[in-house]
Amino acid sequence: MAIRKLRYNDDPILRKRAREITEINDRIKTLASDMLETMYHDEGVGLAAPQVGILRRLIVIDVGQGPITMINPVIVSQKGSIVDIEGCLSFPDDGGYVERPEYVTAQYTDLEGRHCEVKGHMLLARAICHEIDHLNGEVFIDKKIPNEEAQKMIPKQNERLAREQNKTVHSSESGRDEVTSEAYEAPADLQEVAVIEEGTDHE
Length: 203
Ligand SMILES: [Zn+2]
What we know:
The chain is α+β, with helices and mostly antiparallel strands. The protein has helices at 26-41, 123-135, 147-172; strands at 46-48, 58-61, 68-79, 82-86, 96-100, 103-109, 115-121, 191-197.
């Protein structure tokens, strides 16, 4: 394992589309483990291959629930929308508000060649979208919502999340009327990974 050199800011590689991976060979496996090491070293929650100068469709994510390595990831469904602060290891001096789906389901191939699906909620959904954008040469700074605008959207959004969470608490606790303090916390992130199909040797 090794820490790879990150690409930053106006590096043209960050604006290019990455190519599909057709063979999971040792180079791809080494790249994936190097990307994870680089991501952890820089305390990120996600990293895409173009950020280390490799134009291949490979991303790694860890939102605190363990690493996920995704080859040729595709978003198959999404729901809702959340405005929240986002950052990027390639734009270390530049954070900002971005609107992303609240729920995302993505399919991908894992390092063993299995066809997998992951369901992400909140931060994981955001990370999946952010990293897949990188594979298409899209960077979050182009999607930023001005701070003043975001500040207006967030109180309403938080009210809605609290209401939804409250509903969940009620339905799961046989309709108690009391609102517990937990009811006002954002729903916990959901990380659900499933293998859809075992790998084939010719992959
Ligand atoms: Zn990024």
